[in-house]
Amino acid sequence: MSTLDLQPVALPNPHIQTSLVDVTNRLPIKPPCRVFFKNELEQPSGSFKLRGIGYLVKSSIEKAKREQPNKEIQIFASSGGNAGLAAGYSAYYYKLKCTVVLPVISKKVVQDKLKSYGANIILFGNNINEADKHLRNLMNSMDLDEVVPIYCHPFNNPTIWKGHETLVDEVVDQLGPSQAKNLRGMVCSFGGGGLYNGIYQGMKNNNIRNGEILAIETSQAPTLTQSLKAGDLITLQSVNSLATSLACSHTTKNTLQYFNDSSFIESKLELIDDVDALRGCLAFKKCTNKTVEPACGAALSVVYDKIDAFYKHFGHLKPNDIVVIVVCGGTCTTDQDLAGFQTIINKSEIKL
Ligand SMILES: Cc1ncc(COP(=O)(O)O)c(C=O)c1O
């Protein structure tokens, strides 16, 4: 064996570089500045989650190989959504065994995709908390002399945020120095806050001064709104949003800290209705023929029917300034679901 073989190996990341597209002249309304879409729907698992969870899996493997080289590494997750898919894809990418415990009501589209990655699926419980409890019991029953279990939380882990930072690194790289200096804002949807935390850290690392992050939350899942109001972390007793991937009962300590510190980056929050998120999905489908989840439609809504929110935050910008909308993706929505969204929108308009 050569000395090189004994060096710890740095693995490649499972996420890919996604496209950054200037859509300024393709939007229904002329914005005050340039607008780009960062197309995270192109990730192999279907969403940005692969950046953070892929990075968590990668660094955990590297650590396990260093510290416990003779044990088998296994991946565990309990998300019935895009985080579970990112964990499943990461396991497939690194050729590791993966177990995902999903609530019994989980969508078939997610189950099928997980199966295509070779993940072992267990349907248990009526919600994510019950599924997660079962997963943890399973992990506790593992023989730790044989196996190194890697647990993938959907958002609450600094290593995940570090992986999400790469989204900003990539945007800066793709814009190049002459345009990156005009980057003034990023728009992202907000569930538990992992994406926001990664963007905040990424903007700071890249020294993007005078920048603003506009986080979009639905009023049916107002986790951050309520935490900011309380001045502390709160737990929502029930969250029932059509933007299912944004339906988190709590956010993170770091999120509140970042949000309240405007010394470097200004963070703002807009509450939209679930129906606006559905409208965002339909408008995006019409413009691009691509299907995304309401969790993504939420961020997109600011350049479609919630353009007032865009003007409120970015109306002062100059024509050369740049705002990037994170098209976070999501594969839990099918084309059939989109047709159902139209019906929900129609009904909500009759109510008005
Ligand atoms: C497609 C999509 N967008 C946005 C989010 C919100 O991300 P976070 O929970 O990191 O705020 C999620 C979370 O699952 C998601 O799946």
From TrEMBL:
Enzyme class: lyase
Protein name as catalogued: L-serine ammonia-lyase
UniProt KW keywords: Cytoplasm, Gluconeogenesis, Lyase, Pyridoxal phosphate
Predominant place of localization: cytoplasm
EC number: 4.3.1.17
Pathway: Carbohydrate biosynthesis; gluconeogenesis
Catalytic reactions of this protein: L-serine = pyruvate + NH4(+)
Cofactor field: pyridoxal 5'-phosphate
Molecular function GO labels: L-serine ammonia-lyase activity; pyridoxal phosphate binding; threonine deaminase activity
Any one of the GO CC terms: cytoplasm
Residues annotated as domain Tryptophan synthase beta chain-like PALP: 25-329
Family, per entry: Belongs to the serine/threonine dehydratase family.
Compartment(s) where it occurs, according to its Swiss-Prot or TrEMBL record: Cytoplasm
UniProt source species: [Candida] subhashii
A biological process from GO: L-threonine catabolic process
Keyword Endoplasmic reticulum on entry: no
Pfam families listed in its UniProt record: PALP (PF00291)
